[in-house]
Amino acid sequence: MFETFAALAAVEFGYGLMAGAVLFVALFALLLAAALMNFGALWFQAYMSDADVSLVSLIGMSLRKVKPSLIVSAKIMGRQAGLNIDRKHGMSTARLEAHFLAGGNVMQVVLAIIAAHRAGIDLDFDRAAAVDLAGRDVLDAVRISVFPKVIDCPASEPGRKNMLSAIARNGVELRVRARVTVRTNLDQLIGGATEETIIARVGQGIISAIGSAESHMEVMETPDRISKGVLDRGLDANSAFEIVSIDIADIDVGENIGARLQTDQAEADTRMARARAEIRRADAVACQQEMRAKVAENRVLLVLAEANVPEAIAEAFRTGTLGKWDRSRPAQNRRAGS
Length: 338
Fold this sequence. Notes:
The protein contains 12 helices and 4 strands; from the N terminus they run αααααααβββαααβαα. It is of the alpha+beta class.
């Protein structure tokens, strides 16, 4: 009886194990069918393009909120362009997913790497992704590196012609507008100075070069001395751009600042001389008034002296000394005669 019970238990266990296996296979087939329904077309596209994207990776992308179609398209573009998409050292699926989750523009990075690869520029995925995450347009940077960009110095504004103003040593003003050709320096793209800094540095160099010229005619005769002098200064140091050339697009003669300053100085000297002359005139007038006051004072003294004359004559009549000359007292005689 025990043997019969054991046989029945073994049979039931076998049926249960078989049912579990069938259930597992059915569940796996259901999941596989769902995966193929959602990602079959993408996986088959990646498989036929040798893009090295597995079905499991596609399912994981959907769970991580990553766009599978974007990653597959990027891998296919990289493979067709001849890029290294190896899982260990190349542009792997995991790296693309990480860049997408970090907020980067995957397609821009891939296009930039392809453009750099075709142009013979050394640009790997890590550096391109770092530039993209730093907020720079990596694709535009590669394009400017291949096709240099021309920027105006000073920066142009719609409906207005901006010019740099510089003064030579002879005092004549020159108004200059330059065109600066630059290309991207990928090694210093992160943390390097921007286009505005290049414009400011070039403008400063042009003003300094004109200011060191003895005459404005020297600059007018050989305007390339400005560009050569500015290029020798190394103005693109620590910047995201490399200066290819500086060309003087327009140069005009402005005002004669030196002559105007000399005229202003002459007018100032004239005003100073007039002020000094006015001071001397005022001193002369004051001295004249003082002399007039002294003349009036002396006249008063004269009147007082004349008032004493009658009294002296009366005293002479009274003493009988009027008209007499005493030889023994010549001093008194002189007083008496006077």
